[in-house]
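Aggregate trends can hide what the representation actually does to any particular protein. The sequence in question and its structure tokens are set out directly beneath this paragraph.
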Amino acid sequence: MDMSNFNTAEQAHMQKVIETKQMQDFMKLYSGLVERCFTSCCNDFTSKSLSSKEDTCVMNCTDKFLKHSERVGTRFAEHNAEMMGAAQAKR
């Protein structure tokens, strides 16, 4: 987003809005990861600590999620670069 048309106060406000939105998106993503891995992996509530099986499951679940997110981010960046290149080629 080009904010060069805004004055300093408006730019600061927009930056704050963007940062708040990014934090909300991150927290939503994190909460979804916690819920997904907890629901999939934690099913023995007779102890305060995780069993080794649960611990391994949680580690695998989070690792898979992070690798998937990284891959999606990479593909999104590649797709965005292709679209930008195509748009510039049309000019």
